[in-house]
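Tokens for Cytochrome P450 2E1. Go.
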Amino acid sequence: MDPVMFLLLTLSCLLLLLVWRQIPGRGKLPPGPTPLPIIGNFLQIDVKNIQQSFTKFSKVYGPVFTLYFGKEPTVVLHGYEVVKEALIDHGEEFSGRGRFPALDRTFNGLGIIFSNGNRWKDMRRFALTTLRNLGIGKRSIEDHVQEEAQCLVEELRKTNGSPCDPTFILACAPCNIISSIVFYNHFNYKDQDFLNLLKILEESTKILSSPWLQVCNNFPALLDYCPGSHNIFYKNQTCLKSYFMEKIKEHVETLDVSNPRDLIDYYLIKANQENGNQEPKYTLENLAVIINDLFGAGTETTSTTLRYALLLLLKHPHVAAKVQEEIHHVIGKERSPCMQDRSHMPYTNAMIHEVQRFIDIVPNNLPHAVTCDVKFRNYLIPKGTTVITSLTSVLHDSKEFPNPEVFDPGHFLDENGNFKKSDYFMPFSLGKRVCVGEGLAQLELFLFLTTILQKFKLKSLVHPKDINTTPMNKGFTSIPPPFQLCFIPI
């Protein structure tokens, strides 16, 4: 045989062997495009619009398919039926947290969001119990959010109707709510430590949503050996950890076990109760990660949603006018909005739901993993396999939401103009891993937005038709493009 032909044949066999070896249980996993050695399906995925790639694959392979991000298989669930079936009907089996290399090495399996097993169950239970003890779901937290809404209004008044970028002003309000829960502390909106914290949180979210980080999550070795924005992210995380540990140390020195002030105090009390355990769960390092989880999830997603809401209202002034008409009719111009008002304000409630549906804040959810070998729709998904549940495919389902790419509060109104619930509304995910702070976020969005629109008319610097609402990035989260507006006092 010709030596060149022999070499080509040998290389081809090796290539096929590599492909075959990197696909364990190929006949058991759901179907999907054939991966290449080492890089998997990377070249077939648009890292700038992963959701669009998933939609294309679902049309070929169905609602359950397998992709290889690098050498590891990932099962993708696309559409309401399969997402609900996995997260509700098989909730326990799909309750693991999947791989997220950029964050795995930062949080090391600690905290709530990126932990697994008994640690996750214990910390989630602790967080839910403590948040209830601190007023979440009660009138006391509503009073606090109302007070913060007035602080926000006063800060907006200081712009004197001049053009401003609302990013940091809007972030201050939800961040202060989290701060009061975690630190028992309320920051002045000009406090430098506060502004540094907000800057780090915003920058970190942007980096996590960048195409480069999507590449790094596919090829984790890049995180160690290549320059890039991920290094800024890790530097920011080091700063956050240092800041949180400083706050924890202050609490250790002033702790009164008979009068816990905030989440840190409740945690330290639990830590003292488990003294003597060979493998303590309530470590200070774990507490620092929990605080990071709460600030990251409780500040950035809410403030981004608020910012996106204002952008969409500028783009659709008729919607803003109708919301303000309802606010002034139900609440008036002086009384502070409260949650009881929501049941009498179907259009405003629909508008807020439509903002959350339309912007699709966490397009692919956080990665899940199966906790055991799972038989799912005649496929066998091996224990530990990462599972992506496409929330975009649910929130933008054309059967449930006609013309899903159009911003329309009518998606949540019936023929009589009453608010209409939808099972497809799941911006906070679903099942056992549903966002711990969903109730607080909904409370903040309603009270902050109604208070702003009660007191100000929103004025765009450009014609509505020229306003761009396309996300600047749509990776980890959907980030709106930068914009300015004027808050004109009413």
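The longest strand covers residues 72-78.
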